[in-house]
Write a structure and sequence with these properties.
Blueprint: H1 8-16, H2 23-43, H3 47-63, H4 70-77, H5 80-89, E1 127-136, E2 146-150, E3 170-174, E4 180-186, E5 191-192, H6 198-205, E6 211-212, E7 215-221, E8 228-234, E9 253-254, E10 270-272, E11 275-277, H7 282-287, H8 294-297, H9 312-322
Parallel strand pairs: 1-10, 1-11, 8-9
Antiparallel strand pairs: 1-4, 2-3, 2-7, 5-6, 7-8
Length: about 350
């Protein structure tokens, strides 16, 4: 009978998987096993830490609903989403606007608006105009491109955090025949990621601030072009350099201007930004997005979803309280503090 050691157990697992018929699955799973085993050996993982890790992953799964994707949030906060996004962005066949994270708050169920319409139900004096042009990599306009936008409301929260039934601060627009787009929204705020779940507990136990810089998401598409998933980040935000999900980049920083003479809607602050799309390749058609609508991942049980992610003031207080020195209970102890 075969005797296993900390090194030979890895080879044994790989041998059992050797006949996997799907070549890509075989490649990915073999690498996953090698790196997972190497991680356990490197940190000398104890049984207590092993079960705590399993408990944590179980809690992440249990937190997922049609309105909340805790696993995408976990991937985001560990930089994995950003890594996959950066690698995917390098596969463009030509230079174009950089991609950014789709994030855990995207929704397929988004209303369509007329050019120049306001997507926020309550602008509350923070109204901003967004305009610009959609063009190809050479600068020629792309007529009738579809422009989907979503962002936080004026209180710093996404609609989906209040419930899957609520729709606010998101919309679909169509560029005109010269590639011009125009919409109105509210000035987005920087915000805490949801800190009331297992991922938030992890972030707080690491004494991270848990903040994202103010930004507006864009998903732009047109026939024959690679879909662009990106975001514009507001200049001057304190967390542009230490975004908790590593999504902000310098080339996507946008400025809010007062009295811009080129703005099509007068009397309001505005953001002007032009986007360039790359030609679509065959690989692009198969690649997919780094993210998804939570409802596309977790099926509904027919019940209404409950609000999550407390407002920033309360969550800031919780983050400070959770960061206070406590008696150590192992490397995973911070993930399971009682609320």
């Amino acid at each position: 009978m075969r005797e296993y050691t900390p090194l030979t157990i890895t080879d044994a697992v790989l041998e059992q998987m050797a006949e996997t018929p799907d070549a890509r699955m075989k490649e990915v799973m073999e690498a996953a096993v090698r790196h997972l085993h190497a991680f356990a050996r490197e940190v000398n993982l104890t049984p207590t830490e092993w079960i705590k890790g399993i408990e944590f992953m179980t809690k992440v799964g249990q937190a997922c609903t049609p309105a909340r994707q805790e696993f995408i949030l976990l991937s985001d906060t560990m930089g994995l989403s950003a890594l996959v996004n950066i690698m995917h962005d390098k596969t463009k066949v030509e230079e174009a606007t950089s991609a950014s994270l789709l994030g855990p708050f995207f929704r397929e169920n988004t209303p369509k608006f007329a050019t120049g319409a306001q997507i926020a139900k309550k602008p509350d004096g923070a109204e901003v105009v967004m305009y610009g042009r959609i063009a190809n990599a050479q600068g020629a306009p792309i007529p009738n491109a579809q422009v989907t936008v979503w962002q936080t409301a004026a209180d710093g929260r996404y609609d989906i955090q209040n419930g899957i039934e609520e729709i606010d601060c998101r919309g679909i627009f169509q560029a005109d025949d010269k590639g011009n787009y125009l919409l109105r929204t509210v000035r987005p705020l920087g915000y805490f990621i949801p800190l009331d779940g297992p991922v938030g507990q992890m972030v707080m136990s690491q004494k991270r601030h848990g903040m994202r810089p103010a930004h507006i998401h864009f998903l732009i598409s047109a026939p024959g072009y690679r879909e662009l998933v990106t975001a514009l980040y507001l200049a001057g935000d304190a967390h542009l350099d230490d975004d908790v999900v590593f999504g902000a980049s310098a080339d996507l920083v946008a400025h809010v201007k007062d009295g811009d003479p080129a703005c099509p809607i007068k009397g309001l602050p505005s953001i002007q930004f032009d986007f360039n799309l790359a030609r679509e390749s065959e690989a692009d058609r198969r690649a997919g997005r780094v993210g998804a609508d939570p409802a596309a991942v977790t099926a509904s049980d027919g019940k209404n979803t409950t609000p999550y992610g407390a407002p920033p003031p309360e969550m800031a207080a919780a983050a400070v309280a959770a960061a206070e020195p406590k008696k150590s209970g192992g490397i995973f102890s911070g993930l399971f503090r009682s609320r």
